[in-house]
Structures are given as C-alpha cells and as structure tokens.
C-alpha cells in the first residue's frame, strides 16, 4: 500500500503529511489528538542525509510538542550502499536517529512503528525496531535478505534454506514470521484505525519482544537465555 | 609494544583488559548455551555462541563485560549471542556496576539466523540505551581484524565512549557489499589503504566518531577503558540537538565527496596526505578543534 492510502485509511483527509523526495513528515489528527508522522517512502535507501533528516524531525517534535505521539511510517530497502556514507559515518547517523527515538520514548512520547511497504535490515533497525512496538500491514515485506542472496553469502544450499523456511520463521522473509518472533507486535489488517487506536492505548514501553517471541513460538530460546543471565 | 590486541581471542582480550584474574563468566562454554539454528544447517555451533559475558573489576571498579569472538561466524549476532548481551545489559540495569565494557568485533547480524539476528541486534541497542540512561558508563572497545559493522556498528555508536585502534574499522556496510552493489569504482574492496582511510580508526578519530585512538596493544586498550569509566554523555534533548547540528555541519562540509584526504583537509587537518603513514600518537594530535565536540572530551 502506498503512503497516501495508508494516511487516508488512518486519518481520512485530516492530515498534513508531506513527501519531500524519500522523506515523509507532518502531522495528522486522530480521534481528537494530534499525531506527529515521520518516515520514508519509495523504498528509500537510508543514508547519512536521510537519517539526519528524520532525526531532526523527531527532535523538533520532542522540543516543540511534548508528549505528542510519534508514528513512524517505514518503507526502506535498507542502508545506502555508498562510500560517501561510510566515510561520513552512516553508522553514527543511524545511531543518532535511534538515540533520538529513544529520547522521545523517555520523554513520554508514544513511539509507534508501522511497516507499510518494505523493511530491510539497516534502515529498519533505527526506525520501526526502535519504536515502543512495531506493527505492520499484512502485505508488507520484512527481511534481512532474500533466500537466494542468503544462500550465496552463507554458502548454504538454497534448497535447504527454502525448505527450512517453511517451518522455521528464522530463515524466511515475511511479516508473519516477524510477528511469531516478537519483532512485530501486531498486523494492522483491514481497519487500520483500530490498529493505531490499540497501539496508542498500550502505554507499556518495556521491550517485550523476546517474551512475545517465546510465547508465540517463533523465537524459543532468547527470552530464556536472558533470564538465565539474570539468574547466573 | 606488547602482542597485537587484534590477534588475540575474545577471552584473551578480556583477560588482558580487566584486572588480572577477576573475570567471572556467566553462561560459560561448559553450560553449552548454543545456537538452536545452526545444526539443521550443518554448520558447527560454539559452546558460547561466539560471545563471553560476565563481571570483573577494572582498576578496582566493578564492571560487567562482554567480548565477541570474531573467529566464530565473524562475531555475527545470532539469537543466543544477542540474548546473552541483552541479559548482561539487563543485569547491569538491576545490579548497577560502575560500567559495562563491550569488546566489539562483529559483522553485524548473523545471516544464518537472519530474522532472529536482526531483532536481537535491536534488543541489544535498546538494552544498551537503558543502561546508558541509568547513568552507568557504557564503553565500546572496537577491536579485531574483522571490525565492527552492520547492526553492531550502530549499537557501538550508542555507547558513551568508543575506543578504537588504528588498525580497527568501524562502519556500516563492508566494502565487499558496497562493491558488489555498486561496483569497484564506487568502493574497491581490495584497496586496503582506501578501505582503512574510509572506515579505519585514524579516520574515525579525525572526524570525531571515536573518542580515543590507541595503539593495537592490550595495555593501551586497558588504559583507555579505565579512562572511559568516568565518562558519561547524558542523552538530553540539548545534547542530541547539538549532535544533530554538528553531524549536519560535517555532512555539509563534505558535500558530495567521498574522498578521505579531501574530507580531512576540509575538516582542518593540515597535511592530510601524511596521515596514513603516521602512528596513532601522531594522529591523535591532529584532530581539528572544530571536530572535538563530536567526541568525548570536546567542549
């Protein structure tokens, strides 16, 4: 789904979200409350410039609109693969973006992630995955890399990975797998406004992903290992 | 000069950095807390999943420590590896040591556990920021020939302090990945000099992305780690606004350029061409005053 459709389904005409290149920013009115929206579109490759731009928008919300909920609209093909970005410290720009989201959370802003199209590794770690909780549309695509590329890099047979991916959510792309592993809290299916309403009502900001991954059976050991470290 | 820190194993590095004999490991290899995913791929697992965690003292102060083993899957973060780090950080939040010191050597997400690794890296990041926000010093020692990349590259930059040697690399995507995506003209991964001046310790020091540049020497890392125990960078709105302004200034200064020499010159380094041949001591003295506020110790 494209971002204007998502905005329309969530807010009707009641929004002032603007796309400038790959960058999305603006406000929307949702059931009487103003919501800040920051995100990316066009399957953006997130480089230094786009990371800093998002960070600035988030800092402006924290500075000017205390407590205003933040909705992150995620559509990224991952980090930008350019030498200039590496030279300029893309890892730092992304860490800065993540820190800005963390600050917003600590200052009492609800931070909600929504993968509405594509979410890949680098661009996702410091956006949707830094939210209080990340949600997704059922038709969205979330992955680290495609199975053929994964086979090439790991030097494992593609057929083996394909067959494992049918039963083990760890190996295969897909939002359902991320839900099972706890990385995505819920799918917003059909009534998007109901999804946003429920997300806004959940004010527990603790990171519950490992626990939910264990409860849902998609990530069986992480939560237990964390607990064992606390008890060792 | 002592032995190369980069060439040591993760546990050797830990032993060399903390006070002698004080490292106490949690979930040691004898407990065989292993990856549940590698066996079905026919890939050998490790009894510690490539990371050692525990407590120790450093200059007499209580620290929680972790060291990633670059020899095992490039230090890649899988489900168990990540969960051990998160457990350590959550325990730090509970037990309040003076600091958490992480010896980072990692290619980022372990592709063999792709989805679980990605979520795990994100959990490590949030747990680290919780510890930092609690006023416990968080220290990253970027060590090892493999460098610190991908999600771990981001996580490392979330700490209060980042210490690097001149032979360490800290970045996001490996040069091979960039070359395969955009060609050798974009980034020639076999040009070692180019790779190091784009992502290596000297460059990160000169551009303000590392807080201490040291020799590849265990004693030098230990000294830098001790100094970092007292460094706190509270993440306030004002501090992040300042960082945002500085990062934008630095990005604008570079323009469209991707050349390290040109960039260093614009930052104010007098003889940029000489940098690759200088030792860490000499490069330390060259960091322009305008860059210093991007790092610790800057004003």
Radius of gyration of chain B: 19 Å
As for the number of domains of chain A, it is: 1
Could you give the order of the helices and strands of chain A?
A: HEEEEHEHHEHEEHHHEHHH
The main sheet of chain A comes to: 9 strands, mixed
**Uncertain segments of chain B:** none
Strand order in the largest sheet of chain B:
1-2-3-4-5-6-7
CATH A-level architecture of chain A: Alpha-Beta Complex
Q: Shape of chain B from CA axes?
A: globular
Number of helices of chain B: 11
The end-to-end distance of chain A, rounded to whole angstroms, is: 47 Å
| CATH H-level homologous superfamily name of the domain at 10-170 and 210-233 in chain B | 2-enoyl-CoA Hydratase, Chain A, domain 1
Low-confidence stretches of chain A: none
Oligomer: heterodimer
Average pLDDT of chain A: 95
Helix fraction bin of chain B: 25-40%
Main interface pair? A-B, 77 and 83 residues
Shape of chain A: globular
Helix content of chain A: 40-55%
3D architecture notes:
The complex is a heterodimer of chains A (232) and B (299). Chain A has a single domain, classed as 2-enoyl-CoA Hydratase, Chain A, domain 1, CATH 3.90.226. In chain A, 45% of the residues lie in helices and 23% in strands. Chain B is built from 11 helices and 7 strands. Chain B has a domain of 185 residues: Alpha-Beta Complex (2-enoyl-CoA Hydratase, Chain A, domain 1), CATH 3.90.226.10. A 7-stranded mixed sheet of chain B has the order 1-2-3-4-5-6-7, sandwiched between helices. Chains A and B meet through helix 2, helix 3, helix 4, helix 5 and helix 6 of A and helix 2, helix 3, helix 4, helix 5 and helix 9 of B.
Give a concise summary:
With 232 residues, chain A is an alpha/beta fold. Chain A has eleven helices and nine strands.
Main features:
heterodimer, A: 232 residues, alpha/beta, 2-enoyl-CoA Hydratase, Chain A, domain 1, nine-stranded mixed sheet, 11 helices, 9 strands, 45% helix, globular, B: 299 residues, seven-stranded mixed sheet
């Amino acid at each position: 789904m494209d971002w204007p459709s998502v905005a329309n389904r969530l807010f009707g005409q009641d929004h002032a979200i603007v796309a400038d290149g790959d960058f999305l920013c603006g406000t929307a009115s949702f059931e009487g409350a103003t919501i800040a929206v920051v995100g990316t579109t066009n399957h953006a490759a997130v480089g230094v410039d786009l990371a800093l731009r998002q960070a600035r928008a988030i800092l402006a919300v924290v500075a000017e609109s205390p407590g205003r909920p933040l909705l992150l609209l995620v559509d990224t093909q991952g980090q930008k693969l350019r030498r200039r970005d590496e030279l300029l410290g893309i890892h730092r720009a992304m860490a800065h973006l993540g820190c800005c989201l963390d600050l917003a959370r600590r200052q009492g802003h609800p931070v909600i992630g929504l993968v509405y199209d594509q979410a890949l590794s680098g661009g996702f770690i410091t956006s949707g995955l830094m939210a209080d909780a990340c949600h997704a549309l059922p038709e969205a695509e979330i992955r680290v890399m495609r199975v053929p590329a994964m086979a090439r890099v790991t030097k494992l047979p593609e057929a083996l990975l394909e067959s494992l991916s049918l039963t083990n959510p760890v190996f295969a792309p897909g939002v359902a797998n991320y839900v099972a592993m706890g990385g995505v809290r819920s799918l917003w299916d059909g009534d998007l406004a109901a999804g946003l309403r429920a997300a806004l009502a959940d004010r527990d900001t603790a990171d519950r992903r490992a626990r939910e991954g264990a409860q849902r059976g998609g990530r069986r050991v992480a939560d237990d290992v964390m607990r064992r470290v606390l008890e060792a | 000069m002592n032995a190369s820190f980069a060439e040591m194993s993760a546990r050797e590095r830990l032993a060399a950095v903390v006070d002698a004999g004080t490292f106490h490991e949690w979930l040691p290899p004898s407990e065989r807390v292993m990856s549940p995913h590698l066996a079905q791929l026919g890939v050998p697992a490790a009894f510690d999943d490539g990371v050692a965690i525990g407590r120790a003292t450093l200059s007499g102060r209580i620290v929680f420590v972790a060291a990633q083993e670059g020899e095992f899957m490039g230090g890649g973060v899988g489900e168990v590896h990540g969960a051990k780090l998160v457990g350590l950080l959550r325990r730090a939040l509970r037990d309040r040591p003076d600091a958490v010191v992480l010896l980072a050597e990692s290619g980022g997400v372990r592709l063999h556990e792709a989805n679980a690794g990605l979520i795990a890296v994100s959990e490590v990041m949030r747990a680290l920021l919780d510890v930092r926000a609690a006023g416990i010093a968080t220290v990253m020692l970027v060590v090892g020939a493999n460098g610190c990349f991908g999600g771990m590259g981001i996580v490392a930059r979330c700490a209060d302090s980042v210490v690097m040697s001149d032979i360490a690399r800290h970045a996001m995507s490996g040069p091979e990945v960039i070359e395969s995506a955009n060609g050798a003209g974009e980034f020639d991964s076999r040009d070692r000099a180019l790779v190091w001046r784009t992502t290596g310790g000297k460059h990160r020091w000169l551009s303000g992305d590392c807080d201490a540049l040291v020799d590849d020497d265990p004693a030098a890392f230990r000294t830098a780690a001790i100094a970092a125990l007292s460094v706190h960078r509270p993440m306030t709105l004002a501090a992040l606004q300042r960082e945002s302004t500085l990062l934008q200034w630095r990005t604008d200064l570079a323009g469209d350029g991707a050349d390290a020499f040109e960039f260093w010159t614009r930052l104010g380094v007098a003889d940029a061409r000489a940098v690759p041949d200088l030792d860490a001591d000499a490069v330390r003295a060259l960091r322009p005053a305008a860059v210093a506020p991007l790092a610790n110790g800057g004003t």
